[in-house]
Write a structure and sequence with these properties.
Pfam families: FAA_hydrolase. This protein is of the alpha+beta class and 234 residues long. The protein contains 5 helices and 18 strands. β1 and β2 form a beta hairpin.
Length: 234
């Protein structure tokens, strides 16, 4: 007897690559939590790199939305936040990667938005439960076209900004990451066999805040490009 699928298999999630007809198949989306001191402080916590390690949460690949999209305000939240992020796209397998080897497995970089149901995240944090309902939900991982590293070189600094309806809300520099890209890749690859198609959202600067229906979000990272998202007016 030939086995058949009970229902159609999920199609691959494909992200855009800048100035290319090729597409980037998304495998996993890793997100680094509290990776700027100023953002950690605004969330009411302190990060001591000498005694702590990075921590992560994961969004399903199906949460991907391309830059320039219009999306609905998500259900079961009254405090829906933007988080502008520097995203690293992985292009080669890597396990127990050293910091010196990290650059070798990078495919490219992109602007990203980690959209967050903040009320649900904080409720989970207060009760010691996972953040999934606050972070891993439909249309919560926004991504601009990926810029291959061969065009940018290895990036260690650059302004990262976000505005809502033309008013600047976040303004920082990726050189202020607590754990930099080399350190993140080396650390994460101790726990996971990194694969081509993995994305790493490296964390957000301070200035996070809510958006409502009808708002337009525009972000940018120096040397990488920009990202845009509209929240539908229902």
């Amino acid at each position: 007897m030939t086995n058949k699928l009970a229902f159609p298999a999920k199609k691959p999630v494909l992200a855009k690559i800048a100035d290319s007809d090729n597409l980037f198949p998304i495998h996993r989306i890793f997100c680094v939590g509290r990776n700027y001191h100023a953002h950690a402080a605004e969330m009411g916590v302190a990060v001591d790199k000498t005694t702590q390690e990075p921590f992560y949460f994961i969004k399903d690949a199906s949460t991907y939305v391309s830059s320039g999209s219009s999306i609905n305000y998500p259900p079961q939240t009254a405090n829906y936040h933007y988080e502008m992020e520097f995203v690293v796209a992985i292009g080669k397998e890597g396990f127990n990667v050293t910091e010196e080897q990290a650059e070798d497995i990078i495919f490219g970089y992109a602007c990203g938005l980690d959209m967050t149901r903040r009320d649900l995240q904080l409720k989970a944090r207060e009760t010691g439960r996972p953040w999934d309902l606050g972070k891993d939900f439909e249309e919560s991982a926004i991504l601009a076209p990926i810029i291959p590293i061969k065009k940018t070189g290895f990036i260690t600094q650059g302004k990262i900004e976000l505005a809502v309806n033309g008013k600047t809300k976040q303004a920082s520099d990726i050189n202020l990451l607590i754990w930099n890209v080399r350190e993140i890749i080396a650390h994460l690859s101790k726990f996971y066999h990194l694969q081509p198609g993995d994305l790493i959202y490296t964390g957000t600067p301070d200035g996070v805040g809510p958006v409502v229906q009808g708002d337009r979000i525009i972000g940018a990272i120096e040397g990488i490009g920009s990202i845009q998202l509209d929240i539908n007016q229902n």
